[in-house]
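Milestone M4 deliverable, item 7.
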Amino acid sequence: MHGTIDGFNYGAVTPVVAYVMACLGSALGLRCTIRSLRTDTSWKPGWLGLGAAAIGSGIWTMHFVAMMGFHVAETPISYDLRRTVLSLVVAIVVVGVGVFIVGYRGATRAALLTAGLTTGLGVAGMHYLGMAGMRMNGRLEYSPVAVALSILIAVVAATAALWAAVSVKGFLPSLGASLVMGVAVTGMHYTGMSGLSVRLHESHGAQALGGASAVSIMLPLMVGPLAFLLLAAVVVMFDPILVLGEGEWTAPAAPQAPKAPADDWPEGFGAAYPGTTAHQGAYQGPTAHQGAAAHQAAAAHQAGAAPYPAGAAGSPTAYDRFGGPAQPQPPHQQPGSARPSF
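Output delivered:
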C-alpha cells in the first residue's frame, strides 16, 4: 500500500522560503569566489572556503526547509540526527572541492567539467542522503527517470554556477546568476521529490521508529547554517571591493602635479623646471653646453693630434650635472690654479 504524499503541506510558504535560502547561499558563495580571484594568494583559501560553506549551507537549508512541508498522511515522519548532520557536511565539503578547483585552475573546460560534475553529484548526494535520514512507517521508492533528471539538473546547475563565479563581472550579473542557480537547485529538489513514493508497512498505523520529529530536529539544526549565512552576508557587505565594485579599486592613479623646482639650479635657469617650456628654452641638450674649447678638443682628438686632457670639457669622463659634457672652466676655477688677486 502506498501512502498519500503532500509535498506542500504549508502551501507556498516552504517552496518560496526554500528558494530564497538557495538564492542567498548562492549569491554569497559566488561573491566570495569572485573576491578570491582579486586578492593575494594568502587570502584566497579563506575566501574560497567561505564561499563553499555559504553555497553548501544555502543548499542544505533549502532542502530541509522544503522537507518541512513534506507530509505523509498515514504515518508521522522523523529524522535521524547523524545522517542529517552528515548531509550538511557532504554539501559543504563537495561544493568546496568544486569551488577550489575553479578558484585555482580558472574557467578552463577541463576544470569546469571536473568541478561541475563533482559539485553536482555532491549536491544530489546531499539531497538523497538527507532523504535517507527520514524515519517513517514505510519505505521510500524513487522513479529512476526522476532521479537521473534531478542529478542532471544538479550537475548542469553546479557547472553554470561555477562558470559564473569566475566569469561574470559586476554585482548585478552575479546577482542574476545566483537567482538562476536558486531556480536550478530548488528545481532539482522538487524534480527528485516528484518521483518519490512511500510504500507503507503492514502496521501502517504505528508510530515512526526512532529519530526526532521534524520540527524538534530541523529548527535547531537550521539555526547554525542561518547564523553562518548571516555572518557571511555581513562580511560581504563590509568588503569594499565587493560593495563598490572592481573598477573603484583598480583604476589607474591620477597623474601627480610636477614637483617644485629645486633651489640649487644654476644661474641663468631661474625658476625653470626640467620638462617645462622655460627650461627647454634655456637648456637645449649637450650641444648647447659645448663651448668652443670643447669643439676644438673633440676635433683634435678625432684627428689624433692630442688626446682628451683628463677631466677636460668634452672628454668622455667629464659631464656636467645635466648629463652633457662639462663647460670649460675659467683658469682661476680649474683645479690647481690660483685665483688672481686684484
